[in-house]
Amino acid sequence: MMKLFCAILLSIAFLQSSSAEYEDICGIENKEFSSKIIGGQEAEPNQFPWVVAILMSSIFGSGRCTGSIVNKQYILTASHCVAQFDRFTISAGTHDYSKDEPHQQIMLATESIPHPNFTNNMFEYHDDIALIKLEKELEFNGNLLYLFYSKNDDVNCRLC
């Protein structure tokens, strides 16, 4: 019985030293995963007029993401935001999507288009980009603009 106890104790000591050695060699930090922004600042109203709130839902649950207005009918977001959901409500032109605001535009999406090569490996995403098509066009005003906005129409062949 004593031999078995010693073998188990040595195995545990070996496994602990192996994992510590792995962390030192690879430089992997043990950080706690969080789905929230930590240490961020609240944006000023209308500071980012191309950002929208995306409220997602399915029979399995719900979630929230953000997106950027590409044009009057498409939102750019991450594939992991659309991969497991089938209903999307977009809140545009607001500072706080949970409150009714005068310039708020709320609409449903008719389609989500994840990148065809998107892979979701729990904590590692590849080709994590998607488009959401809106049921109708957004109305642009001072509270709502394109992500790539120019007062000058001459943006051909130039980087935005």
TrEMBL record:
The keyword Repeat does not apply. Pfam families: Trypsin (PF00089). One of its GO terms (molecular function) is serine-type endopeptidase activity. The keyword rRNA processing does not apply. It comes from the Eukaryota. This is Coagulation factor IX [Myotis lucifugus]. Residues 1-20 form the signal peptide. Residues 37-160 form the Peptidase S1 domain. InterPro entries: Peptidase_S1_PA, Peptidase_S1_PA_chymotrypsin, Peptidase_S1A, Trypsin_dom, TRYPSIN_HIS. GO terms for biological process: proteolysis. SUPFAM superfamilies: Trypsin-like serine proteases. Keywords: Disulfide bond, Signal. Transmembrane segments: none annotated.
